[in-house]
Amino acid sequence: MAGMKLLLSALLIGLCAYYFYSTETKTPEMVKGKRVLVTGSSTGIGEQIAYRFSEMGAHVMLTARRAKQLQEVAKKCLELGAASAGYVVADMENVTLAQNVGQEAIKQLGGLDYLVLNHVGGPVSFEYFKGDVEPMLISNNLNFLSYVELTSTALKALLESQGSIVVISSMSGRIGAPFTVYYCAAKFALEGFFSSLRREFILSKNNVSVTVAVLGFIDTETAVETVRDKITLSPSPKEECAIEVVKAAILRQSEVFYPFWGTKLVCLLHNLAPNLIDNLLDKMYLLENI
User: Fold this and answer.
1) Taking the alpha carbons of 283, 186, 206, 161 in that order, is the dihedral positive or negative?
2) Model pLDDT, residue 29
3) Comparing C-alpha atoms, which of 185, 55, 42, 56 is closest to residue 119?
4) Degrees to nearest 5, angle at CA 146 with 142 and 148
5) Could you tell me if 192 and 141 are in contact, meaning their C-beta atoms sit under 8 angstroms apart?
6) Roughly how many angstroms between the first and final C-alpha of the chain, as a whole number?
7) Number of helices (H) and strands (E), helices first, in the chain?
8) Which residues are catalytic, by number?
């Protein structure tokens, strides 16, 4: 018991030092003129990420399913200072369309420096698994395979620019979460694929960075509506989330956790005492409403 307390104390001290005393900073000059593709950028986290890159003078390419919303976001990107702002309408459930998005973005931008993979969708019900396989196939195509297809399509351009891949993941890609088995499976697949790819990039010394963003409960419209009256957690703001993700991308960090204390600390403690943390996490669900 004494050893465990000592280990936890050392862990907390290390986390505090990491969180509060990091001297790395980003500047607009690091991004100005860079070419950025942000998927799922008509709303939510993707929209906010596009705005943060725009404020620093990047060329941004947006993509999502809804043309009207994309037009509005592109207009605001220009108002915020984007060097240019275009968009491609596509449904990422169709993996072929994902390939087309990558090709069109590279054609219009003349290359690519940042590939931000943020889109999400498919089955959004928050309920017990009933044995249905079809929703798993839909989720796998949209939330995993389209990410791989876009990465494959953009790989040559990213190698040429020595650019960056940014993957929006989740706590559900680190710790198995109930009632979201389809989503959870896709996020675990993403973590495996992009962690492996990062190691290959390092070993081949090609200098393409991979940043995985491990996010908690964020106040996007879809997330809030899906779990309304079903969990006791309060969501964190998407605007602040986007700031942390973009900072990590620019600094080429391998991982970013947001909100930090609700994700990084929980993941570390889960490695030490998985049953205890699972039991604590289970208390946040309002089972009577599921």
Assistant:
1) negative
2) 83
3) 42
4) 135
5) no
6) 37
7) 11, 7
8) 183
pLDDT of residue 229: 94
Q: What is the dihedral of CA 135, 63, 44, 120, to 10 degrees?
A: 20
CB 238, CB 45: distance < 8 Å? yes
pLDDT of residue 15: 52
- Residues with Cβ < 8 Å from 17, sequence gap 6 or more? none
Across the chain, which has 290 residues, the per-10-residue mean pLDDT values are 49 50 66 97 97 98 97 98 97 91 97 97 86 93 96 98 98 95 96 98 96 97 93 96 98 97 95 96 94
Assign residue 213 a region (left: φ > 0; alpha: ψ between -120 and 50; beta: otherwise).
Answer: beta
Q: Any idea what DSSP says for residue 186? A: H
Q: Which two tokens stand for residue 226?
A: 């899906």
Tokens of 143: 């939330």
Taking the C-alpha atoms of residue 20 and residue 18, their distance in angstroms, rounded to an integer, is: 6
> Can you tell me whether residue 234 is helix, strand or coil?
coil
Are 219 and 236 in contact, with CB atoms under 8 Å apart? yes
User: Which residue, chain included where needed, has tokens 């980003």?
Assistant: 26
Burial 18-35 (b: 16+ CB within 10 A, else e): eeeeeeeebeeeebeebb
- Considering only CA atoms, which of 152, 168, 154 is closest in space to residue 119? 168
Output the CA–CA distances (angstroms, integers) from residue 119 to 4, 91, 134, 279, in the order listed.
Answer: 40, 10, 20, 31
- Other CB atoms within a 10 A radius of the CB of residue 100 amount to 16
267 contacts 214 by C-beta, under 8 angstroms:
yes
